[in-house]
Amino acid sequence: MSPTPPVTRFAPSPTGALHIGGARTALFNWLYARGHGGTFLLRIEDTDVARSNPENTQIILDGLRWLGLDWDGEPISQATRADRHAEVAHQMLTAGKAFKCFSTPEEIEVFRENARENKESTLFRSPWRDVAESDHPDAPHAVRLKAPRDGSTTLTDAVQGDVTWSNDQLDDMILLRSDGTPVYMLAVVVDDHDMGVTHVIRGDDHLSNAFRQNMIYDAMGWPKPVLSHIPLIFGADGKKLSKRHGATAAADYQKMGFPAAGMRNYLARLGWSHGDDEFFTDAQAQEWFDLDGIGKSPARFDLKKLEHICGQHMAVMDDAALLQELESYLTATGALPLTERQQKDMLAAMPHLKERAKTFPDVIEKAHFVLADTPIVPDEKAAGLLDATAQQYFTELTPHLQNVNWDRTTLEEAVAAFATARDTKLGKLAGPLRAALAGRSVSPSVFDMMLVLGRDETLSRLRAVSA
Predict the structure, then answer these.
(1) Which top EC class is named for this enzyme in its record (predicted)?
(2) Is 243 one of the annotated active-site residues of the chain?
């Protein structure tokens, strides 16, 4: 009998942009589901009404779409399920697994202040836990879960191994506030159960939450998901990744011009490994990814490694797909879209543009020769190469190129023969030719540019300099 396909979920809070750590969590859930023929669900944990907003939700969705992480079905809003969360709390109350607590916030704070003064545990033990219903006052109350008081709880985690927590460190946590609204801990468990989630893959900063959420599974008698708490992402200095390390939002990396395939590859390697493999495709990642490949130690974000991986992906990407993603990059950065002519020329030039490029700004810089309008206006460095000698060379070279076959071998031979006849070297001509054709001192090969531009445009640009 084949195993049941897994159901994973990514559950971001729309209180800000999609953090790079959240993007990696989503990627791990996506890879595990896709690689095992399962389902990847998306839940928006928007119960914090004061800080959640639709704009942030859209930013998160856009970030996931840019990364290419498609989810199954419609995203679920946690806030819309409050009635279901409360229903489960009342079921636990009826079953004697939970109780009504009439302690006021002021009473709880007084208890904690006294505990701090006496250097005792501030873990609140409600005096209402075992009070009979007949002795309850007619007053506002919270609903609390009855936590075990003795012994310990051990959870088996696919990444962390067996983790044990002393039960005397578990509080009778609130399930419903005095206004009847459910708390986050309850909502997460109810939603995971109702969505059929079989594997919870999330950051290890949630490990302590797992013990509190485990009490709800026990109280309801529900099957428990496989837990995998993955290490956090640190900066190069070994400290938790934050804004002081630079960009932390996934959208920032799109605007910096990193290709999504390279970003997926690099994020997958942050905390997970498959032997010594560094560069791999999505298909390989889905085939290889498993929970036992995730390490326990925090991963370090290295921008240079990201650039290296992205350069490898750009080199092998389909030219049309690369152009399409470049246009998405232009849209994300607010740049003007490519014209029809620019799209056509960029596609023709792409095999040369993507060589040694690591980001889309690299591609655009090298593409100046097809993006710029004629006449080409050289930058300062290129203009310095277009002196009187270069102008004389172009005046004499142009007729030699007028009728030759327009292929790379013939062009190289024609220019090399011209250089020999003028007692100079091909390298001495390359700089001025590059400046005339691209208006830049850095560009693709002179002969690659000639082939992309074609005979008429090439000669037109040379004449414009020599005129």
Answers:
(1) ligase
(2) yes
| Cα angle: 231, vertex 218, 206; to 5 degrees | 20
- Lookup: tokens for 141: 């109350």
DSSP 364-387: HHHTHHHHSPSSP---HHHHTT--
- Per DSSP, the three-state class of 261 is helix
Residue recorded with tokens 């990627």: 27
- pLDDT digits over 412-429, tens only? 999 999 999 999 999 899
Residue set of the binding site: 243
Q: Which of 224, 240, 243, 255 does the annotation list as catalytic?
A: 243
Instruction: State the chain's mean pLDDT as an integer.
Output: 94
Shortest CA distance to 159 belongs to which of 249, 272, 294, 279? 294
So what's the pLDDT on residue 90? Answer: 98
**Bridge partner residues of 272 (DSSP):** 294
Place of tokens 């007619």: 138
Cβ atoms within 10 Å of 403's Cβ, excluding its own: 8
Which domains are seen in the chain, by residue range?
A: 81-230 (3.40.50.620), 245-342 (1.10.1160.10), 380-466 (1.10.10.350)
Tell me how far the alpha carbon of residue 282 is from its chain's centroid.
Answer: 14
Q: How many CB atoms lie within 10 A of CB 379?
A: 14
How far apart CA 190 and CA 175 sit, in angstroms, is: 11
User: Each residue of 218-250: pLDDT tens digit?
Assistant: 999 999 999 999 999 998 888 887 766 666 899
How far apart, in whole angstroms, are the C-alpha atoms of residue 176 and residue 186?
8
Q: For 31, which DSSP code?
A: H
| Known binding residues for ATP | 243
Query: 213: closest CA among 251, 183, 256?
Result: 183
Residue 374 phi, psi dihedral angles, 5° rounding:
-85, 140
Burial tier of 85 (Cβ tally within 10 Å: 0-12, 13-18, 19+) = buried
β-bridge mates for residue 229, sequence order: 202
294 SS3 class: strand
- d(Cα 102, Cα 138) in Å, to the nearest integer? 9
